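Preliminary data (for renewal application), FE2/S2 (inorganic) cluster complex.
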Amino acid sequence: MAAVRPAIPNVPDPACEPAAVTIVVCRSCRLRDMPADGVRPGVRLLEAVSEAARNTDISVKSAGCLGNCRRGISVAMLRPGGWSYLFGELEETSADDILAGAALFATSSDGFMPFGARPEALKRGLIARIPTFDHLKDLP
Ligand code: FES
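Predicted structure:
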C-alpha cells in the first residue's frame, strides 16, 4: 500500500499561518559495514526528501555530517521559534515519515513537534531536541 503523503500548506492561512521548516539531511551517512565508496544512503534519502518537499513550504538542505554517525541516517529539523530536532536510524525510505513530521512541526503552536502524532520512525529515532535561546528563559 502506498504511503499517504501529508498535505503541507504552502499558502499562508491567517488563522494558522505555518512556519517554514528546514530539513537537513546528512548526505554522508552510510550503513556500518558498507564501503566508503558508492552512493551513500544519506544521499538517497536526501534525494527522496527533496522530491517529497517539492512545491511545499518545507526547505531541504544537506550537511556533510550531523555528528550522529553511529545512528544514521541522520536528519535535523529546524523552524523559527521552535526547538531543533535531531533524528537518527532513519532509512532511505523514510522520506514520507520525515515530511509528515515536518508538516506537524510547521503547524504546531508551541514550537514542539507533537509526539503522539509523529510517525513511528520519528518517535524511536529521536536523538535530541534543543531549545531556542528564547525558550531558555522558561527553563529553570
Ligand atoms: S556521517 Fe551522517 S551524521 Fe555523521
